[in-house]
C-alpha cells in the first residue's frame, strides 16, 4: 500500500510522481487518521478484564507491527514530504489521545531512572570485582629482583676512541661478546651472494 507507493519511486523521481500515487498516499493517511479518531466505547471497555489492552491500544499495536509508525516518522522528517505534515501531526496527536503529557513524562523518567540505576549497580559490581582481582594479583606477586643486571667496564677492550667498552648485559653473556653484539646483520642481495 502506502509503503510500497513510497519506496517504489526512486528519490530522483519525487517530482515525477504520478498523481494517482499522491492520491493513494493521502487516502491511506486519511484512513489511518479516521480509524484512530473513532472514540472509545465505554460499554465495551468495561466488559474487558483489567489489564486488557483497549481497542485503541490494539490499533496502535497493529500500526506498529505493520511498520506504519516508521513510515510516519519518515513522512514527518523527509524534506520533500512536507505536504503531509499536518496529516502526520494529526495522526500522532490521535495516537497519544488517551495519554496525558504528565503521565508520558513520568513514565519515561521512571524507565530511564530504573535502567540508569540498574546500569550503575552493574558497573559498581564490575568495578568491585576488578579491584578484588587486582588485590589478589598483587598478593600472588613474589618479590623478585629486576632484570637489570648492571653495567660493566671491560678493561683492555677499546671502544670508539680511547675509552674502555661499557657492557650492559649480564656477566653470563660476557663469553659471547663481540663488537657487533646487538647490531642487525647486513643482508647481501641475492645476486651478490656467493654461489653454493
Automatic annotation (TrEMBL):
For this UniProt entry, which residues form the secretion signal?
Answer: none
Please tell me whether the keyword Nucleus is annotated for this protein: yes
InterPro entries in UniProt: Timeless, Timeless_N
Q: What GO biological process term is on the record, naming one?
A: DNA repair
One GO term in the molecular function aspect is: DNA binding
Its main localization is nucleus
What keyword terms does UniProt attach to this protein?
Answer: Cell cycle, Nucleus
Spell out the subcellular localization from the entry: Nucleus
Return the annotated region ranges for Disordered.
Answer: 176-196
**Location of the Timeless N-terminal domain:** 12-153
Q: Where is the composition biased (Basic and acidic residues)?
A: 177-187
Keyword presence, Protein biosynthesis = no
Per the record, the domain of life is Eukaryota
Q: Which GO terms describe its cellular component?
A: replication fork protection complex
State the protein's name: TIM protein
To which species is this protein native?
Agelaius phoeniceus (Red-winged blackbird)
